[in-house]
Amino acid sequence: MLKILTPRAAVRTSLWTVLPLAAVLLTACSDRKPDPQAGKGAPPEVGVVIVSAQDAPLSLELPGRLSASQVAEIRPQVSGIVLKRLFTEGSVVRAGQPLYQLDAASYEAERARTAAALQKAEAQAGVARTRAERDAELLKADALSRQSADDSASALRQAQADVAVARAALDAARVQLDRTRITAPITGRIEVSTVTAGALVTANQTQVLTTVQQLDPMHVDIVQSSAEMLQLRRQLDGGTGSRQIRLLLEDGSEHPQAGMLQVSGVTVDRGTGAVTLRATVPNPAGALLPGMVVRARLLAGVDSDAILVPQQGVSRSPTGDATALVVGEGNKAETRRLVLKRALGNQWLVASGLKVGDKLIVEGLQRVRANQVVTPVPAGAAKGKKAGAGAAGAGNPAASATTTDASASAPASAAPTSGTGGSR
């Protein structure tokens, strides 16, 4: 016969069923021993590099400014009206190429006048020569006094001097006439013109008509401190340095042609304590322009057995000192204070603070502090391990299927319990 339970009786029956199970679970938990490592995590994993000695090229990067190897400012040497401009602005002109033509009418007239004056002087000199020769013959025949013969010879010399003066005046007139056609003194690239046809120009005026600059090769004026210059000179004299330089342009690119250090200044600037060095750089393509700011990389020598470390492994303390973390005894992180010489690319050249064989921490620095036990691995290995683990979890369908099956089976196993309770 089916027995129907009241709600209160059903609750009492469920409690008597659950309480013994809860007592068993509490007893099992109380018998479990505490895990001493439960509150402690595993030592953090850090990437390290082994410090080693190597030969480091000591290159200096110094600021510099480009200038043309030759510069000619074009100014008129005679006065006149500009008739025409004979060049294309911005083009390459050759030495002797005409640039401007001035009005030459007055200078042509002066040349003609001086030519006529020369002809007159030459005619008078011819008459004086004939007279002097005749008087000399008469003097030999005692038909003329010596005084008259001497006067004839003096007149001839005066006429010859007049010829020389007239010839010099003609040469000067020709020079002035030639200067009405202004030519390029050097070969180079010409700037824009500051005057046009019809402009009046005067001799030796301060305003330039245009400028011609020789851009191949180019000069690089490099500013260097006097102390660095003395060190560089010793290295050049000792043969460990090089006179070759490389230019880094404003956009970060490197000029393809190498330059050569030529001369150095002889005076130290009193305000900055710097000396100007000059180098010559080929510029066949015309990519370098006067006035550009560049950085000149100069190989000052080679530092043998130098210690170079990645810059990511060096940090700064609040006082500005360079510090680094290394793995010491017992895999404990130790703080080292470094003395740095200079930066070489993405590395620091270390003067002191590290020795060969030290394990420098370069990865995982944000998870480590001094005197903490760490797990050192080669730099880059920790990232690869994490990436591999993530790939395995994402690409393992068996694990996903197992998890899905377990979650799906949980409600199925709970369903009979619910039904059993309800039947009771």
TrEMBL record:
**Residue intervals of the Multidrug resistance protein MdtA-like C-terminal permuted SH3 domain:** 305-367
Q: What Pfam family does this protein match (any one)?
A: BSH_RND
Q: Where are the transmembrane segments?
A: none
Supply the alphabetized keyword list: Signal
Q: Which residues form the Multidrug resistance protein MdtA-like barrel-sandwich hybrid domain?
A: 71-213
List each copy of the Multidrug resistance protein MdtA-like beta-barrel domain by range: 217-301
Protein origin, superkingdom:
Bacteria
- Annotated Multidrug resistance protein MdtA-like alpha-helical hairpin domain ranges read 114-180
Q: Where is the composition biased (Low complexity)?
A: 394-418
Cleaved signal peptide residues: 1-22
Name the protein family: Belongs to the membrane fusion protein (MFP) (TC 8.A.1) family.
Q: Which NCBIfam families match?
A: RND_mfp
Q: Which PANTHER family match?
A: ACRA/E-RELATED COMPONENT OF DRUG EFFLUX TRANSPORTER, MULTIDRUG EFFLUX PUMP SUBUNIT ACRA-RELATED
What name goes with this protein?
Efflux RND transporter periplasmic adaptor subunit
